[in-house]
Here is the input.
Amino acid sequence: MADSFRGERQPTVGVIGDGDPRGPDAHRILEWAEEVGSLLARGGASVVTGGLGGVMEAASRGAAVAGGMTIGFLPGDDPREANEYVRLPISTGLGVVRNLVVVTSADAVLAVGGRHGTLSEIGLALRMGRHVVTLGSWRVESDQRMGGPRVHRARDPREAAHLALRLAKEGPVRPSG
Amino acid sequence: MADSFRGERQPTVGVIGDGDPRGPDAHRILEWAEEVGSLLARGGASVVTGGLGGVMEAASRGAAVAGGMTIGFLPGDDPREANEYVRLPISTGLGVVRNLVVVTSADAVLAVGGRHGTLSEIGLALRMGRHVVTLGSWRVESDQRMGGPRVHRARDPREAAHLALRLAKEGPVRPSG
Amino acid sequence: MADSFRGERQPTVGVIGDGDPRGPDAHRILEWAEEVGSLLARGGASVVTGGLGGVMEAASRGAAVAGGMTIGFLPGDDPREANEYVRLPISTGLGVVRNLVVVTSADAVLAVGGRHGTLSEIGLALRMGRHVVTLGSWRVESDQRMGGPRVHRARDPREAAHLALRLAKEGPVRPSG
Amino acid sequence: MADSFRGERQPTVGVIGDGDPRGPDAHRILEWAEEVGSLLARGGASVVTGGLGGVMEAASRGAAVAGGMTIGFLPGDDPREANEYVRLPISTGLGVVRNLVVVTSADAVLAVGGRHGTLSEIGLALRMGRHVVTLGSWRVESDQRMGGPRVHRARDPREAAHLALRLAKEGPVRPSG
Here is the structure.
């Protein structure tokens, strides 16, 4: 019955990263984010982000141009804050707490570059049982215990998107610490 | 440019109310919620709820059967918590805080019946500048000051949906206290 | 064992109201808030507020001058945002979500005046099972069902503080809707 | 004026770590947490935790036995959830979001051991501009940019407490990414 209204639910990948990358790697990070977004959309996933600039915008652009669904959870209370590639902008009014929604609403999480905000989201994703793929981002080890979420380091956007799609289809596991 | 990806953005109405209505009015409240959901969908609005039972489920059912978009912001971290009429279930991990997202993500809010949780959401909606329509729900007065959000009491589902659609198209105003 | 470290735990009353009252009643509202704060402190309660101006500051001033404990849960991330009468300023980083902490951390809640933000906090307090006393504030009815939290309308600060102290000592009850 | 009510404000250190440490290091982690709590209290700091078991309880016990102030921000709505060494238990109703309050309310953060929840809190602390000291915990690098919060790895509880006290007195800095 549910399926008649929901249709086939698409896997959802949360793409996280710096809202304003700077320094020598900034250009590459944004290119990676856009390519990752494109590959995820072509692989059949919805792309969830925090809806603002930098990696969020690049990943949304990649996905939207490829014809995919893009959802953006915004910190403020005005959906017009969203970048133009977010097809479903959701104003949350939650401020920094909206990061929890980005990772909890996703079936798996992909981090591209990123600073401390991204690190906290990686930790939160694992805490909520979401598998994480990293690309040019923090090195975080999986928990040793059985059954927890995994962290995979990808070497390039293609591997990152491929892994994220596979993990999103596996879906969340038991939360980890 | 944005429009090419976003298309025409549908107005969004948050429907709030009791997750488990009891007492002599319960049956009528659920019928109203379903009819309201149906009318909102036929009027071109997306219906946003807290994704669980009672009024949330009835409004989602009405909207989904009428072919409309239904979004459910769930308190927990598992999208399968959603009732079967939610086409886009979003697990937030926020607990009771998810109520803020239900009202802040909406262009206008419609309360059907409801107890104290609903009252807090009505107050929060007004606090976030969202116009509110009530149907068999709390009597709340608008703020006297100019420009704040308004509260309208509707007599039946038809009037409620009509008002909510109109107010959603007007969109949010300045937050009110 | 616990008691040896915690000592006798003081009852805690959350005082809520407008952060910037205006209009003809503003002066009286602030006087009431200050008197209420003073009476609560002299009655042995800690006073919890949102830590900013208006009713929050007046209630904190009344309590602090009377030698009582005042706790302020601030929306931002800097404890120096607090008014000067908050003895324990707690920066939460939660924005508007900090209102939930003000009511949930209290044994009972007292509303002095207030607009829609205050209404949402009254609803939230009842939703979390906290008894509520109102003074020149919204008229909200208790839920009909047995065992839920109660709402009392007080006529003056003395009655309000007296009721709030009594209800805080009773403590929270079953959440209500 | 403020000082007459607030007195000299004590520095506050948030102690974070596993609520249920297991494995070969569990015993040592708990001993470290207790010693750290004791040293912080004797150094004049208030100890803030999430108020539950494991590292939170051990740090609170160390601080409380040494006569220090212990604050616990609880996920649920009942202050009796707190371990017995929390002198000021604060029920937040925020669930996992309460972790943000633990780090944002602190002048500096000290991580003892910990899994992914702790990692997310370390990231969040840095994101909110709080310096972090780690003891047997995650290896996280500071941001390269000037002026951001720092991460120090301590070798033993004495060094950890000493560093945390010093950084708490320095206070928060500009948020970092």
About this structure: Chain A touches chain D through 27 residues (CB under 8 Å). The longest helix of chain A spans residues 26-42. Helices of chain A lie at 2-6, 26-42, 55-65, 98-104, 116-127, 157-170. Chain A has six helices and seven strands.
